[in-house]
Amino acid sequence: MIDKKPELSAAMRNKPQPKVFKKNPIIGTKFTLAISSAKGGVGKSTFATNLALALKQIGCKVGLLDADIYGPSIPKMFNINEKPKSDGQKLEPITKYDIQCMSIGFLTDQQTPMIWRGPMVTSAIKTFTQKVNWKDLDFIIIDMPPGTGDTQLTFSQEIKMDGAIIVSTPQEVALLDVKRGIKMFDKLGVKILGLIDNMSYFLGDDNKKYNIFGDGGVKKTAAEFKKEFLGEIPIDPEVGKQGDLGIPIVESNPEHKISKIYNNLAKMIKQNYLK
User: Fold this and answer.
1) Where do the domains of the chain lie, and which CATH numbers do they carry?
2) Cα separation of 93 and 265, whole Å?
3) pLDDT on residue 114
4) Which segments in the chain show pLDDT lower than 70?
5) 223-259 b/e (C-beta count within 10 Å ≥ 16 → b)
6) pLDDT of amino acid 249
7) Residues 150-168: pLDDT tens digits?
8) When you count CB atoms within 10 A of the terminal residue's CB, does the N or C end of the chain come out lower?
9) In the Cβ-directed half-sphere of 155, how many Cα atoms lie within 13 Å?
10) Contact at 8 Å (CB) between 120 and 57?
11) Burial grade of 66 (CB within 10 A; 0-12, 13-18, 19 or more)
């Protein structure tokens, strides 16, 4: 008796190939930079707004896209209380501090929760990236939502992002999520420009550093995954205060020590990535 080899079913023989996504560039900008945090509450939006302003201050034309659909921060942090105009085809970004801005928060009441499922979020992303009249930008900074969910996947798969910076505190619980974020961007082919250790320490009146959330975790994670470590940004109450007032620290006090950190980072980004 001759044993027959089991035959593959038609479905198995015709196994579908992985879907190849077409990544569309954001029209009107030279470099699309995502600011990401795998964990909420690490200061990502504060970082995104101040980096955008620092790039502006060294002569770049900058746009700021608030992609945090469920928790938009830009309207508050830039003190914008108006709705964008439309020509029937595209939305016009709202310009504040010489930054072109767009946020879902411009279109809804600040206290209205965004109870949206995935397809609605995807539609909003396509509107903000393809149907906003971004004008002659050197950089567009995308303030991503925290985590590795639908919004992040849609951006990474369908939008041409030239780079990403991952923001984290040095807490172990935050770094666990950072590692997932790194793997997501690597898998989806998004270049990680580096990691930022935000709220890394507090400088007391005695001039001593107090590592409230731990010490060195972000730098170690960057080394583990062979990513660049972009530096530390300490805790400073003035940063939060100015963000709440709608005038971020880089705009309100360019000579502040925190502003100078952002300024140096902006110079590095401009030198290395603006062609």
Assistant:
1) 25-273 (3.40.50.300)
2) 25
3) 58
4) 1-21, 39, 109-119, 148
5) eeeebebbbbbbbbeebeebbeebbbbbbbeeebebb
6) 97
7) 777 777 788 889 999 999 8
8) N
9) 33
10) no
11) buried
Question: Dihedral, CA atoms, 47, 52, 57, 61, nearest 10 degrees?
Answer: 170
| Residues 237/69, Cβ–Cβ less than 8 Å | no
At position 146, the amino acid (one-letter code) is P
135: left (phi over 0), alpha (psi -120 to 50) or beta: beta
Q: Name which of 183, 121, 182, 204 is nearest 155 in CA terms.
A: 121
The 3-state secondary structure of the chain reads CCCCCCCCCHHHHCCCCCCCCCCECCCCEEEEEEEECCCCCCCHHHHHHHHHHHHHHCCCCEEEEECCCCCCCHHHHCCCCCCCCECCCCECCEEECCEEEEEHHHCCCCCCCCCCCHHHHHHHHHHHHHCECCCCEEEEEEECCCCCCHHHHHHHHHECCCEEEEEECCCHHHHHHHHHHHHHHHHCCCCEEEEEEEEEEEECCCCCEECCCCCCHHHHHHHHCCCCEEEEEEECHHHHHHHHHCCCHHHHCCCCHHHHHHHHHHHHHHHHHCC
> Do residues 273 and 141 make contact, with C-beta atoms less than 8 angstroms apart?
no
- Which residues lie below 8 Å from residue 33, measured CB to CB, with a gap of 6+? 139, 140, 141, 142, 161, 162, 163, 164, 165, 193, 269, 273
